[in-house]
Specification:
By secondary structure, the chain is mainly α. Helices cover 37% and strands 0% of the residues. It is built from two helices and no strands. The relative contact order is 0.15.
Length: 52
């Protein structure tokens, strides 16, 4: 029996919005990223969501 899990990307941001250098400032050291995001980065993403 094969089970397939499909994932849906909830949001996509313009690459210029959070370039890798800016992500480093939030403590993100790899593109694959940590399993959790810093609270400050979550706030930044939420702020951007409502400005669009």
């Amino acid at each position: 029996m094969n089970h397939v899990m499909r994932l849906k990307k909830p949001d996509q941001y313009n690459p210029s919005f959070l370039p890798f250098e800016k992500l480093k400032a939030y403590g993100i050291g790899a593109v694959r990223g940590p399993r959790r995001m810093p609270h400050s980065l979550i706030c930044e993403l939420e702020r951007n969501r409502y400005e669009q």
